[in-house]
């Protein structure tokens, strides 16, 4: 049989041209001004750190829903929202801590433990340079214990000092002298006593008294995941999912705000930029599902809730990309689950090398450190992407928009786009 020969050159040239047009469209859709605008909005004081005081996370959820609507993405519920509830310990009132009449600055000189109870009054300080087993109940009665843990101790000794968290001797409260930066978080539980972490540099050498006014309030909070869909052109019943968490730590007291620029206004800005680009181009092979999760900082609660109440069947998800901490990139990108999904990691790494987007792409194994986790546990192939290098601000008052460099933001956007298109 004679082999029918058809010239492939014009066809290949045509397909390359189409790919170039698509690539150019997506790349031009990457909007740095839009990214900055989203980050500035989400970290502004009017969003209260996107936490649980003054409904900051609800404001963020509404902003994201409005952006989905603006780009004409399809809601999977009546209003893009998937609500769920959980308890959270909050500190909504004025906060004051003075040591020997020196007023300490919240977020700078001290933080309260996220599970701390209220404290009001003036108390003598008992200085503890050893674990609680070295002291008696009588020594700390009606006093605040100042725990001064020596630097350079081993892990076993650190565990012994950590027993002070439980206040085993029944002190009025615990102060911890900290050598390193203060890193805050949130909690769904409350201790029976107050805990405060204070920088050693902010303390007198031998303080005598502490005056506190700290009010906690455990609340039942309703949050909402925000979900939108863009139908695929060729395989609409198979999904690539792009996720990022919308919440941060909120407020500690009525003045101290944790803005959360890198964590995770940067990830939400990337998610919205991708949604905007693909909505304008509207040529994705698979359907794209965009999910902004609430409740990540308190234990991945939004993503856990979604995997238990999926709006798209989990078995229909071809791949999931979870975006967090994308505001730097000086030292490249890290891929959690990269060691597990080796074929997809090889594809991502090859795309990066072919375009020289980033200096390095590292890979890790399984980790329960962001919203990809519960999907992975249910068999959904997923990567968690975060950038490396640059600023060190994390879970503190300095994670703000004005100092977030977005060093490799455009390159990460292009790499993610290339990966989505190549799947």
Provide a short characterization of the protein structure.
The protein has 423 residues and is α/β, with parallel strands linked by helices. The chain has ten helices and 19 strands.
Q: Average pLDDT across residues?
A: 93
First-residue to last-residue Cα separation? 37 Å
Helix content: 25-40%
Structural class by secondary-structure content: alpha/beta
Instruction: Tell me the CATH topology of the largest domain.
Output: Aminopeptidase
Query: Beta-strand percentage?
Result: 25-35%
Question: What is the H-and-E element order?
Answer: HHHEEEEEEHEHEEEEEEEHEHEEHEHEH
Write down the Rg: 25 Å
Q: Low-confidence parts lasting 5 or more residues at pLDDT below 50?
A: 1-28
Number of domains: 2
Name of the CATH homologous superfamily of the largest domain: Zn peptidases
- The number of helices is 10
Total beta-strand segments: 19
> What is the global morphology?
elongated
CATH architecture of the largest domain: 3-Layer(aba) Sandwich
CATH class group of the largest domain: Alpha Beta
- Main beta sheet: 9 strands, mixed
Characterize the structure shown.
This protein is an alpha/beta fold. It folds into 2 domains: about 30-90 and about 220-420, 3-Layer(aba) Sandwich (Aminopeptidase); about 95-215, Glucose Oxidase, domain 1, CATH 3.50.30.30. Helices cover about 30% and strands about 25% of the residues. It is built from 10 helices and 19 strands. It has helices at about 10-30, 30-40, 55-70, 135-140, 155-160, 260-280, 300-310, 340-355, 375, 410-420, and strands at about 75, 80-90, 95-100, 100-105, 110, 120-130, 145, 175-180, 195-200, 210-215, 215-230, 235-245, 250, 255-260, 285-295, 315-325, 335, 360-365, 380-385. Strands 1, 2, 11, 12, 15, 16, 17, 18 and 19 form a 9-stranded mixed beta sheet that branches. Helix 1 packs across helix 6 (about 260-280), helix 2 packs across helix 6 (about 260-280) and helix 8 (about 340-355) crosses helix 10. The longest helix is centred in the first third of the chain and has 21 residues, at about 10-30.
């Amino acid at each position: 049989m004679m082999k029918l020969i058809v010239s492939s050159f014009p066809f290949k040239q045509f397909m390359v041209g189409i790919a170039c047009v698509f690539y150019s469209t997506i790349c031009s859709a990457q909007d740095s001004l839009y990214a900055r605008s989203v980050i500035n909005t989400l970290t502004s004081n009017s969003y209260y750190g996107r936490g649980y005081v003054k409904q900051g996370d609800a404001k963020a959820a509404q902003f994201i829903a409005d952006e989905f609507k603006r780009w004409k993405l399809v809601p999977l519920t009546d209003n893009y929202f998937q609500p769920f509830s959980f308890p959270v310990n909050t500190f909504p009132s004025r906060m004051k801590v003075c040591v020997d009449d020196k007023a300490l600055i919240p977020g700078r000189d001290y933080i309260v433990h996220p599970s701390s109870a209220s404290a009001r009054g003036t108390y003598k300080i008992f200085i503890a340079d050893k674990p609680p087993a070295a002291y008696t109940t009588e020594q700390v009665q009606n006093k605040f214990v100042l725990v001064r843990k020596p630097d350079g101790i081993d892990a076993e000794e650190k565990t012994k000092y950590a027993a002070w968290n439980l206040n085993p001797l029944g002190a009025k409260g615990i102060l911890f002298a900290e050598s390193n930066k203060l890193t805050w978080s949130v909690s769904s539980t409350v201790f029976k006593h107050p805990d405060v972490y204070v920088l050693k540099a902010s303390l007198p050498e031998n303080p005598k008294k502490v005056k506190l006014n700290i009010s906690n309030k455990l609340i039942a909070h309703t949050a909402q995941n925000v979900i939108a869909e863009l139908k695929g052109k060729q395989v609409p019943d198979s999904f690539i999912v792009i996720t990022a968490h919308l919440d941060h730590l909120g407020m500690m007291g009525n003045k101290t705000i944790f803005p959360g620029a890198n964590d995770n206004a940067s990830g939400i800005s990337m998610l919205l930029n991708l949604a905007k680009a693909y909505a304008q181009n509207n040529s994705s092979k698979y359907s794209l599902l965009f999910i902004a999760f609430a409740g990540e900082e308190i234990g991945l609660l939004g993503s856990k809730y979604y995997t238990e109440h999926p709006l798209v069947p989990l078995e229909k998800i071809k791949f999931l990309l979870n975006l967090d901490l994308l505001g730097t990139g000086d030292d490249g990108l890290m891929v959690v689950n990269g060691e597990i999904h080796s074929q997809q990691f090889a594809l991502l790494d090859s795309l990066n090398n072919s375009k020289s987007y980033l200096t390095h792409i590292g890979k890790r194994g399984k980790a329960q450190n962001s919203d990809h986790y519960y999907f992975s546990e249910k068999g959904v192939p997923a990567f968690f992407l975060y950038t490396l290098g640059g600023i060190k601000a994390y879970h503190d008052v300095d994670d703000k928009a004005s100092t977030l460099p977005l060093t490799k933001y455009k390159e990460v956007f292009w790499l993610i786009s290339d990966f989505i298109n190549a799947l």
